[in-house]
C-alpha cells in the first residue's frame, strides 16, 4: 500500500474509534481529504484508496488540479477564503463552498452558478471562538445570514463550518465544538433544513466527532506535513 493509502486507513480507524466512543454511527461522519499544496498525483492516490471528497483552500490551484483529474469522480469542496473576484471560479468548478460568511458572496455564487449544474452546496463559516482570523460570521449573526442564504435558489444551504484556534487538550477542543453544535441545533430548531456540521481537523477530529461533527476535514494525517511555506 502507498503511504497515502495507509494514512487514510488510520484516519478511518480514528474516525471509527471516535464514533464508537461517542455512541455514533460511523456513517454519520464524512471524511473530506484536504489536499491543499499537494499535487494531482497525491489526490489520484487518495482517490484510488477510496477518498472521493476533496477539500481545497486555494481556488486557482484547485482549478488547475481539477483539470488534470477530470477523469475521476470527485466531489470538490472550497474550504478557503472566497474573495469577490473568485466567486465565478467557485460557482463553476466546485460542488461545495464551505466558507460563505457574507451575503454578498452568497449572492454572487447564486448568480454565477451555471444552470446545468445542481445548486451549489453551501456552509456558513462561523467564527465560533472569536478567534483573530477575520473569517467567519459572529455566532449572533448566523441565523439572519442563514435565512438569507437559504432563500437563494441556486444555493443549497447545508450547514455550518468552523475553524477554531488550535487548542491542545481534548476538553478545551470539546468545549469549542460543543458551541458550534448548539448553534447548529438552534438553526435547525428555527426551521432551517441543515444536515452538515463541518468541524474537526487532524489535531481535533476526535473532539469534533464527540461534539457532533458530520464532516471532518483532514489534511496532514492523510497527505503529510505541508512545511512552513503556507
Ligand atoms: C488545512 C485545512 C484543514 C486540514 O488541516 P490539517 O490540520 O492538515 O488536517 C481543514 N480545514 C481547513 C479550512 C484547512 O485550511
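^ C-alpha cells above, recovered residues below v
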Amino acid at each position: 500500500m502507498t503511504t497515502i493509502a495507509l494514512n487514510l486507513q488510520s484516519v478511518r480507524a480514528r474516525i471509527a474509534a471516535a464514533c464508537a466512543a461517542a455512541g455514533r454511527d460511523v456513517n454519520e461522519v464524512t471524511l473530506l481529504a484536504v489536499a491543499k499544496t499537494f499535487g494531482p498525483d497525491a489526490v489520484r492516490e487518495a482517490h484510488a484508496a477510496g477518498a472521493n471528497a476533496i477539500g481545497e483552500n486555494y481556488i486557482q490551484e484547485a482549478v488547475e488540479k481539477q483539470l488534470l483529474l477530470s477523469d475521476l469522480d470527485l466531489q470538490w469542496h472550497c474550504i478557503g477564503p472566497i474573495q469577490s473576484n473568485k466567486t465565478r471560479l467557485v460557482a463553476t468548478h466546485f460542488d461545495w463552498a464551505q466558507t460563505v460568511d457574507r451575503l454578498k458572496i452568497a449572492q454572487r455564487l447564486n448568480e454565477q452558478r451555471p444552470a446545468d449544474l445542481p445548486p451549489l452546496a453551501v456552509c456558513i463559516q462561523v467564527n465560533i471562538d472569536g478567534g483573530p482570523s477575520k473569517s467567519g460570521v459572529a455566532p449572533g449573526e448566523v441565523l439572519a445570514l442563514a435565512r438569507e442564504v437559504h432563500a437563494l435558489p441556486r444555493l443549497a444551504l447545508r450547514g455550518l463550518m468552523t475553524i477554531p484556534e488550535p487548542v491542545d487538550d481534548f476538553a478545551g477542543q470539546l468545549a469549542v465544538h460543543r458551541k458550534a453544535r448548539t448553534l447548529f441545533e438552534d438553526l435547525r430548531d428555527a426551521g432551517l433544513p441543515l444536515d452538515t456540521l463541518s468541524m474537526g481537523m487532524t489535531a481535533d477530529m476526535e473532539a469534533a466527532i464527540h461534539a457532533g461533527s458530520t464532516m471532518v476535514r483532514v489534511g496532514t494525517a492523510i497527505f503529510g506535513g505541508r512545511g512552513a511555506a503556507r
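The two ends are 28 Å apart (CA to CA).
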